[in-house]
Amino acid sequence: MNFLSIDSVHHTYFSPKTATHALTDITLQVEEGEFVSFIGPSGCGKTTLLSIVAGLIQPTEGTVTLYNKPIRNMKKKLGYMLQQDYLFPWKTIEENILLGLAIMGNLTEDKRKEAYALLREMGLEGVETSYPRELSGGMRQRVALIRTLITEPQLLLLDEPFSALDYQTKLKLEDLVFSTLKSFGKTAILVTHDIGEAISMSDRIILFGSKPGRVHIIFEVPQPLKGLMPFEVRNHEAYPEFFQTIWKELEKLESRID
């Protein structure tokens, strides 16, 4: 059975005077347990496609299915992590983490204990009664990850979740998110502008062309890099050559736009 299938997706944004073709003929398969990154020039439709996968936008044409069922019927199986943590500032960290479970009617004592265990695993023990303003950006993003994982989504959608962080925090959080998702056996799609981030975290990298957005080329991450922690990947001897390969393809695409 296919896990995630994106089949012949086209999308057009309409206004009273214009029609902007954002995506054309996107067909992709994502396997269970796989980590896939979307990269490409600005305006190539990466975030639009992620929003379609999330069921937030209905594509103009085509279908998206999870376990062969329409994605719009499977929203409870999805987790979304964005550039901003979107924690409620008037709620404690514990209340923020458990909010999704409460809304879904799944808040049990066992899930509460699981949330506390995740806080400990991510180095956040003792912050349960704190408020978001009392935590650093990296800590808040860890809280956002716990809030996402505690609802047990089968597919995580990550829209540039590290881009607002300083570089050192970003590298540490890449390692933490990568190891956490692997330990839980989660499937993830990451939208990023950072080639290094895509290489260090992914099994495959989808490079999109633009105007309209389309799949330009799919890169399989070299075997020596797979399974390594993201920081280790960036320091591996196979990393620079693979980075340059993707960089050159991206440069070609951007030169066509110019």
Taking pLDDT < 50 over at least 5 consecutive residues as the criterion, the unreliable ranges are none
Give, in order, the helices and strands.
EEEHEEEHHHEHEHEEHH
CA-CA gap between termini: 42 Å
How are strands sequenced across the largest beta sheet? 6-7-8-3-9-10
How does the major sheet shape up?
6 strands, mixed
- CATH class placement: Alpha Beta
What is the CATH superfamily? P-loop containing nucleotide triphosphate hydrolases
Provide the helix percentage.
25-40%
Instruction: Tell me, briefly, the overall form.
Output: globular
Total strand count, please? 10
Compute the gyration radius: what is it? 19 Å
Which range does the strand content fall in?
15-25%
CATH fold descriptor: Rossmann fold
What is the name of the CATH architecture? 3-Layer(aba) Sandwich
Our count of helices gives 8
Oligomer: single chain
Give the number of domains: 1
**Average predicted local confidence, pLDDT:** 90
Q: Helix- and strand-based class?
A: alpha/beta
Structure description:
This protein is 37% helix and 24% strand. The protein has one domain: Rossmann fold. Strand 7 (155-159), helix 5 and strand 8 (187-191) form a beta-alpha-beta unit. The strands form 2 sheets. Strands 6-7-8-3-9-10 form a 6-stranded mixed β-sheet, with helices on both faces. A 4-stranded antiparallel β-sheet has the order 2-1-4-5, covered by helices on one side. By secondary structure, the protein is α/β, with parallel strands linked by helices. The protein is globular, with a radius of gyration of 19 Å. The protein has 8 helices and 10 strands. The protein has helices at 46-53, 93-104, 109-121, 137-149, 167-184, 195-201, 230-234, 239-257; strands spanning 4-14, 19-30, 35-39, 61-66, 69-70, 78-81, 155-159, 187-191, 204-209, 214-220. Helix 2 packs parallel to helix 4 and helix 4 (137-149) packs parallel to helix 5.
